[in-house]
Hints:
Number of strands: 14
Shape: elongated
Largest sheet: 6 strands, mixed
Distance between the termini: 92 Å
Mean pLDDT: 87
Structural class: alpha/beta
Helix content: 40-55%
Amino acid sequence: MKEDWEKTYTEVNMTDKTLKLESDSRLGYLYRVTRKDEKLLRKTTLKLITVDTKTSGYRFRTEELDSLNEDYLRLTAKYTAAQEKVIVQLVETASTYAVPLKSFNKVLAPLDVIVGLASAAFNSTVPYVRPTILPQDNGIIELVECRHPYIETFMERNFIPNSVRFKQDEATFHIVTGPNMGGKSTYIRQVALNVVMAQIGSFVPCKSARVSLIDGVYTRIGAGDSVEKGVSTFMMEMLEIQEILKSATKYSLIIIDELGRGTSTYDGYGLAYAVSESIANDLGAYCMLTTHFNELAELKTSAKHVVLSHVAALVTEDGITFQYAVEPGVCSQSFGVNVAQMAGLPAHVIQDAKVILGELENAHKLGMAAGTVSPDAMVH
C-alpha cells in the first residue's frame, strides 16, 4: 500500500501531505484529498474508483489499492473470527474451574479472616488478650483498658485505653458527655469492635475482657442524607432510631453517636431524653450514647441502670487539651467555642460567641432559679 501511495501522489503531482492514505473501520484503506485538490486528479491517466465525496474531501482508491484493500478486509474478518473462537474457548476452559474456585474460596475466606485477626494481635505493640465468653443470660460485658484495634495502629503516640462495664439490671445505659474531638466517638466504637471481635473468636485489644453473647449490634453513627429519596439528615437519624427501637432486644448492643442534633435544641433534647428512657426502661439493652445535652444526666432520676461518664479535658488560658480518658460523671460544658478557636475562626467571631454563650447560660440559670424552667418541663 505504501508503494502504491508513493506512486499515486507522484503521478498526480502531489505530496504525501496533500494526498492522504487513511483507514476507515468500515471501508478499510482509501485515499483522501481536499475538494480543492480534487481538480488535480482530473488530469491523471490513472483509473480511480470513487468512494465518496464529503465536505472533508474527496475519497477514492486506485485499482491497486482497491485490490489490496479487499485482501485486507478479508484477512481482517478471518482474524476476527479466529480471535472470537479463541475467546470462546478460553471462557469455556476458565468456566470449568468455577466450581473448584468456589470451594477454594470457601476455605480461603475464613482462613484469611483468621490470619488477619491473628496478625493484628501478634503485631500489636500492646498485647491482645483472649476474652472470656459468657452465656447470654450472664448479662455482663466488661472490657478493662480496651483500645481501638484500628486507630492504635497508626497513632504516633500511645493510645489512651478506657474501660467499660455493663451488667444487666444494674448498669446497662452509658451516657458519655464531653468536648468535640475529646474521644467520645472513638470510645463507644472501640467498645462495639471489641465485643464483635470477641464474639467471632478473636483476641481483643484489652487488658482483660468478659463478654456475654449478644444477638446483634445496632448503631446510629454519623450524619447522612438521601437527597434522591427526599430523606433529610434528621429524618435519616430518626429512621435509624426507629429501626433500633423496633429490632433491638435486651441482649443487643446499641451504639448511638449523638441524637437530636438536626432540629431545635428543645426538640432534640426531648427526643434524646425520650429515646434514652425507652431504651433504658423498656428494652434494657446494653447501650452507649454520646451527647452534648449534658442535661440528659437527669435521666438517672427517671431511668433505670444509667451510668454517667465523660471524656476529660483540661482548659487553660492557652486553650483546651484533650486527655482522652473516660471519667465518672457529667462534663460541665461541651467546649464547642474552644474547638472553633482551634479550627482558626476569626478572633471577633470567637469573642462574640463567648458573649452570646454567657448570656444564654445566665438566662438559663435565672430561669432555673425562678422556677420557670426545669428539666421535667423540658421533657414532659
